Amino acid sequence: MARPNSKRLSLNRLAEDWREAIFNSIKSIRLKDAVAVLSATGCRPAELEMGVVICIRNNRLMISIPGAKVNQEMGRGQPLRAICVDRTTPWGGYLFTRAAECSGEMTVKYDAGGVSQRLREKSRELWPRRKTLVSAYSYRHFIGKSMKESGETPEKIAMTLGHASDFSQTVYGRASGSKKTSGMHGIVLAVAKNPVRHSAKLDKFKHNNHPTNHNTLRT
Fold it and tell me: Could you say which of 34, 58, 183, 196 is the most buried, measured as most Cβ atoms within 10 Å of its Cβ?
């Protein structure tokens, strides 16, 4: 069961254009680079702190992300994943231009705690009357929610989020019947170093959370 203050639930309390509003309001190039990566990939803030590589390959925008939650012995996480991002999104177009200015490749790094703090400050600045604030994890939940509402495969979602098992994605961005975020994630392709394991628990979770099932889990 999700905590009442979890970011996946708070997405419904944010302005519909919150990603665009925050992105357009940022003046600092360094912060804008970081927020563009969060918007485009939903990576963990700790992964942003480790350094995310932006490159242009065959005129496509590719983003390589090192895994922050990896335990090889336990079979957790993806050590490395690469995501092809839609260049027509505001952040995709921005990152493509930035990488082109750097001879086709650049690394974006930002302190994990610092980027969330800047985002909270931006939230208060843009929506002073709202109690729900945006954090770095809000982007991760949005990507998960949008991919689910878009009908993307559990394997693609897992690779995008850096999971070793497809069950881990149940924590992020629960899909709604209205599918308001369908087609908004901007993830063209995702590949990961290791294969994604399918968990039978995911099938059970989907069954229990199906709208027509009277035993729907409350979150």
Answer: 34
Those residues whose C-beta lies under 8 Å from the C-beta of residue 58, and which sit 6 or more positions away, are none
- CATH number of the CATH domain containing 26: 1.10.443.10
> Is 1's pLDDT higher than 50?
no
The verdict on residue 184 lying in a domain is: yes
Q: DSSP characters for 111-164?
A: -HHHHHHHHHHHHHHH-TT-S----HHHHHHHHHHHHHHTT--HHHHHHHHT-S
Q: Could you give the percent of the chain with pLDDT greater than 90?
A: 68
The model's pTM is 0.86
Number of domains within the chain: 1
215 within domain boundaries: no
CA gap 35, 116 in Å, rounded: 10
